Amino acid sequence: MTSPQGTTTVTEGIKTVLHPVSDLAKAKAVYAALLGVPPQTDSPYYVGFEAEGQHIGLVPDGGPQGMTSPVAYWHVPDIEAKLAELTAAGATVKEAAHEVGGGRRVATVIDPDGNVLGLIQDR
Length: 123
Fold this sequence. Notes:
Elements: E1 14-21, H1 24-35, E2 41-43, E3 46-51, E4 54-60, E5 71-75, H2 79-88, E6 92-101, E7 104-110, E8 116-122
């Protein structure tokens, strides 16, 4: 599908949603009950669940990115190309693409209304 800017980069959809939490232990219990599975990643700085093809992450106090609300992450094959398309369309980069481990790169942009959109590229 061609975008208004003439590009053809598509997403793989929203597969990851990160939630800032103030009490990691309490949030972990609630999300485990909601999703019906224990966390696959369980550390003091991040708790992650895999359920039905979705990754749900809990980020204590919004983490270093200063999250104040949940952020949905769109999975893309080329994060730099998608960032270029989004900024050309009017978004502004909040968090530039960077490695977070395991060959995964993430970035966030802000749309014209102030909504944060996340991008993930797995290599």
